[in-house]
Every structure is written in C-alpha cells, then in structure tokens.
Specification:
A hairpin with a 3-residue loop joins strand 1 (153-156) and strand 2 (160-163). This protein has helices at residues 2-10, 35-47, 67-77, 81-96, 105-114, 119-128, 130-145, 168-179, 191-194; strands at 153-156, 160-163, 198-199. The chain has 9 helices and 3 strands, in the order H-H-H-H-H-H-H-E-E-H-H-E. The radius of gyration is 18 Å and the shape is globular. The protein starts with a helix and ends in a 6-residue tail after the last strand. The chain is mainly alpha-helical. It has a 3-stranded antiparallel β-sheet with strand order 1-2-3, covered by helices on one side.
Length: 205
C-alpha cells in the first residue's frame, strides 16, 4: 500500500521494481497458524490500516514454502505490469483475509483466473521453470549483494535500504533527497531509521 501510494504520487520520477524474497525457500509441510500468527497480523493491521489483515484462528494450514506464490507472481509479471499488480493484490487478500494456502497449485490457478490473467499462459510459464529460476535469482541477489534478511526491505537507488514497516513519510523524505541530488550528503532519516539504513552494493534499483 505504501509503495503503491508513493509510486502514484511521484509518477514517472520514481519506478518501483519488485523482487522476490522467499522467507521460506525450502519445504516445511505441516505449518499452521497459531495465536502468535493472529497477534502479528493484528499488529500489522494497526501499522497499515489501508491493508486488510484478518487475524486467523489457530490451526489453519499455511503454505509449506514461499516459492509457489512468488513463482506465480513472476508468471503474472510476464503478462504485464497491470497483471502483476492484479495478482499481487489478489494473493495478498487470499492469504491475509481469506486464509487460503497460496502454496497450492489449484489455489494459484484460481487466483490467476480471478485476476483476469491468461490462465493457459500462466500455467505454461509456471511449469516451465524460468519463473521459478527468476525467484531464486532474486533471492540470491538480495542476500549476497544487498544483505536482505527480512521483508519488507526497500532499496533506494542501489545505495540505501530501509527494513520493516517504515512510515510512508520516510520513503518520501529519502526519495526527495535523492531526486534533489543528495544535498549535504546526509541521509534525511529519523534516528530510529539510522540503525536499519545501510549502504548496499550495485545491482538493483
């Protein structure tokens, strides 16, 4: 929500490029929601009231891996930016509102249909392997080049990264500073952000 708002506000001056970062890159079958899951989603709802977080009951199945949903997103991206956003939004609601296991192929296929994607092409790309490899490439790049270890992590101009649920005003302050030519050479961040802002190596925008 915050990045979409920023992108809309800055128009052609800013481009948001999404990269995949699987928090569960391996297979962990049997994952289920707990009381802590609900507490975490309740906190997220307070931090970002524009998003829909419905705390789940305990015992609901969770995806065994992050890779299937992220691969699906890469497939949607191949159908255009609008298709990417439609499936991205639908996946978010499916997981955080509807409590669906978005790691299951039949669920992903249904969501692709609801997001008005070309489902035949989506299924072909999903099983071909290239989208899956693109997720792994993003993951390797994020960890090796940028030191990403948590989401969300937003990297600005290949120089500075902010980790966590950062207020939208922080994003705007940093973007204004970069677009103005980085005057003074000092990051326009609050003290609480300094600890999580770090230099990064080239390779992503």
């Amino acid at each position: 929500m915050r990045l979409r708002s920023v992108e809309e506000a800055y128009g052609h001056r800013v481009r948001v490029h999404w990269r995949a970062f699987p928090l569960i890159p391996d297979q962990r079958p049997g994952r289920r929601t707990t009381e802590k899951t609900g507490e975490g989603w309740s906190r997220a709802a307070i931090e970002e009231p524009r998003a829909v977080f419905v705390p789940p009951d305990a015992g609901i199945d969770l995806p065994a891996s992050s890779l299937p949903a992220l691969t699906a997103i890469k497939c949607a991206e191949r159908q255009g930016r609008d298709a990417f956003h439609r499936l991205h939004d639908r996946l978010f609601l499916a997981y955080f509102r509807d409590h669906l296991d978005i790691g299951r192929p039949e669920i992903l296929r249904r969501l692709a249909r609801e997001a008005a994607l070309d489902v035949t092409r989506f299924e072909k790309d999903r099983t071909a392997g290239e989208a899956y490899e693109a997720v792994l490439h993003d993951y390797a790049e994020g960890t090796a080049w940028f030191g990403v270890s948590a989401v969300p992590t937003v990297i600005f101009d290949e120089k500075v990264s902010l980790v966590g649920a950062v207020p939208e005003e922080r994003y705007r302050s940093l973007l204004d500073w970069i677009l103005a030519g980085e005057p003074g050479g000092l990051l326009p961040l609050e003290p609480a952000d300094i600890a999580r802002a770090g230099a990064t190596s080239p390779g992503s925008a």
